[in-house]
């Protein structure tokens, strides 16, 4: 607020810079030191005081051809299962939103069944498929079979492992996709319909691109989870993946701990690569989200606030009929602002 006797230079003088003093947090430093010391003690103990770790054995089998081959099978199980799960999950999510009560009920029962039972139990059942259904017949009901296939010859343990993992994961992907679709405002769908876009173009060009920023983060987590879930396919039984292969080697060397460390190292390496890919995918689909808009400039010219009833130099006054003196407001600026 300007003073009646103050000049123009006093009104617009630059304020002195604030000398901010950073607040000290000594306990944060103490906690950091304690954590670093504990980590160093753990590493030292694991490296020199625990012979059961057998680090030479870890280095010996880390790049063993059997381990590398098992990593290939693990990646195949992860990729193939996730592709099938994503496709089936999208279908189940659409079915959950269908106005047809039968279609919606089928989707709900599928989710209830596969989310309500452990994946290990499901994989065990898939391993018994060749026993429960020894043959598969194709033909018209109540007539002679046209084609009869032996289940054991048709479905290998590798294929059954992929099917078991994919069907279980599809139940979770369906809920992730459904949450992403529901996150898009209904007005987007209505606007696309008003523009004459069909269902396919509306989903692929309007709804799904906006839903991806909600779908990608949990999907990335599910991919990482699927990588580790492949260790359960021994229930089928399929013995080619990483965990089962290291267990077979440990059964011969009688040193299970080093082989567990080898498997853990490779799981960590692959998971780290997947996390980097997930980060860039999230960054790509989150473009334009969370960015602060530019500060809107005022449309009215602003000036130094003055005391009511006191005229600034250069502002004319006039006398009203009752004898009061009023300040004539400026009219030359934008929105009534002067100067």
UniProtKB/TrEMBL annotation:
Q: Which UniProt keywords apply?
A: Amino-acid transport, Cell membrane, Membrane, Transmembrane, Transmembrane helix, Transport
Its domain of life reads Bacteria
Q: Which Gene3D superfamilies did the record assign?
A: MetI-like (1.10.3720.10)
Q: Any transmembrane segments, and where?
A: 29-47, 67-94, 154-174, 260-281
Q: How does it sit in the membrane?
A: Multi-pass membrane protein
Q: Where is the ABC transmembrane type-1 domain?
A: 71-278
Pfam family of this protein, just one? BPD_transp_1
Q: Does the keyword Hydrolase apply?
A: no
List the residue ranges of the region (Disordered): 311-339
Where in the cell? Cell membrane
Which CDD domains is this protein grouped with? TM_PBP2
List the PANTHER family hit by this protein, alphabetically. Answer: L-CYSTINE TRANSPORT SYSTEM PERMEASE PROTEIN TCYL (PTHR30614:SF0), MEMBRANE COMPONENT OF AMINO ACID ABC TRANSPORTER (PTHR30614)
Q: Which family does it belong to?
A: Belongs to the binding-protein-dependent transport system permease family.
This chain's protein is named: Amino acid ABC transporter permease
Task: Name its species.
Answer: Leucobacter albus
